[in-house]
């Protein structure tokens, strides 16, 4: 069955850096968009960044643009999020999520059919 | 597209019917709307995609309808395990957006 497992969450000081990882199994990883979605404590869902299967297309939310970088290693079935210049408002649980096959007429990454259990990132001095 | 969910909280008894609303600030292209369920301490789970299609393994107590700007998730015969926050999400326009969520409490 499909499994997504995040790691790398930690407590980091403002201005610091952190790299999240997500290992996927149970599907052909390189065929699908992958997305990072975050949820601040007690808040709703916010997409952060997504990447296509071949790493030719990436997109970022305005709130993280220029500070975060998404990447993937298909040989390792892994997704990454490099987070630099972290701020207190980046404190959240970060989920990786997979997408279904392309949907004609819809905007990628479409909807999210599988989610990881999340990694907690806390930015505080 | 801004998605507004209502009510903010719904408190119902087991066996009752829950009706959750998701209203879009403009028409959602081709009904590209999904619903997710998030139980406390867990990751969200896909319930519905394409406005009306249940995801694999989702009980038929969950149904959804709507098009354009108005969408509804209905949970019939509520069970205690349905206690969760439910989010709608549109993927017909860029950037993708989520609603703010509706919390369903079971009395």
**Number of DSSP-assigned strands of chain A:** 11
Work out the helix count of chain A. 0
Tell me the major beta sheet of chain A. 7 strands, mixed
Element string of chain B (H = helix, E = strand): EEEEEEEEEEE
Q: Residue share in helices of chain A?
A: under 10%
Distance between the amino and carboxyl termini of chain B: 34 Å
| Number of beta-strand segments of chain B | 11
| Quaternary form | heterodimer
* Shape summary of chain A: globular
Look at the helices and sheets of chain B and give the structural class. Answer: mainly beta
- Give the integer mean of the pLDDT values of chain A: 96
Shape of chain B: globular
What about the largest sheet of chain B? 7 strands, mixed
Mean pLDDT score of chain B, rounded?
96
End-to-end C-alpha gap of chain A: 40 Å
Structural commentary:
The complex is a heterodimer of chains A (125) and B (107). Chain A has strands at residues 3-7, 11-12, 18-25, 34-39, 45-51, 58-60, 68-73, 78-83, 92-98, 114-115, 119-123. Chain A is mainly β. In chain A, the strands form two sheets. In chain A, strands 2, 4, 5, 6, 9, 10 and 11 form a seven-stranded mixed β-sheet that branches. In chain A, strands 1-3-8-7 form a four-stranded antiparallel β-sheet, with no helix packed on it. In chain A, 40% of the residues are buried. The model of chain A has no long low-confidence stretch (mean pLDDT 96). By secondary structure, chain B is mainly β. Chain B has strands spanning 3-6, 9-12, 18-24, 33-38, 45-49, 53-54, 62-67, 70-75, 84-90, 97-98, 102-106. In chain B, the strands form two sheets. In chain B, strands 2, 4, 5, 6, 9, 10 and 11 form a seven-stranded mixed β-sheet that branches. Chain B has a four-stranded antiparallel β-sheet with strand order 1-3-8-7, with no helix packed on it. The interface between A and B is medium-sized, with 22 and 24 residues.
């Amino acid at each position: 069955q499909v499994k997504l497992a995040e790691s790398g969450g930690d407590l980091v000081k403002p201005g610091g850096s952190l790299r999240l990882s997500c290992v996927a199994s149970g599907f052909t990883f390189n065929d699908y968009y992958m997305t990072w979605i975050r949820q601040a404590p007690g808040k709703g869902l916010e997409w952060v960044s997504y990447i296509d299967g071949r790493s030719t297309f990436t997109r970022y939310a305005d709130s993280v643009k220029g500070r975060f970088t998404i990447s993937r290693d298909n040989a390792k079935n892994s997704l990454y999020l490099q987070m630099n210049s972290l701020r207190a408002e980046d404190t959240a649980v970060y989920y990786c999520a997979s997408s279904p096959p392309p949907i004609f007429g819809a905007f990628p990454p479409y909807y999210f059919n599988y989610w990881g259990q999340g990694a907690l990132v806390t930015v505080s001095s | 597209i801004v998605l507004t969910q209502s009510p903010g909280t719904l408190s119902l008894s087991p066996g009752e019917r829950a009706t959750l609303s998701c209203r879009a600030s403009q028409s959602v292209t081709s009904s590209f709307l999904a619903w997710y369920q998030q139980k406390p301490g867990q990751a969200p789970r896909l319930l519905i995609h394409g406005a009306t299609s249940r995801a694999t393994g989702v009980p038929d107590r969950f149904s959804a309808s709507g098009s354009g700007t108005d969408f509804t998730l209905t949970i019939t015969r509520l069970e205690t395990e349905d206690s969760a926050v439910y989010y709608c999400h549109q993927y017909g326009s860029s950037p993708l957006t989520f609603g703010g969520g509706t919390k369903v409490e079971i009395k």
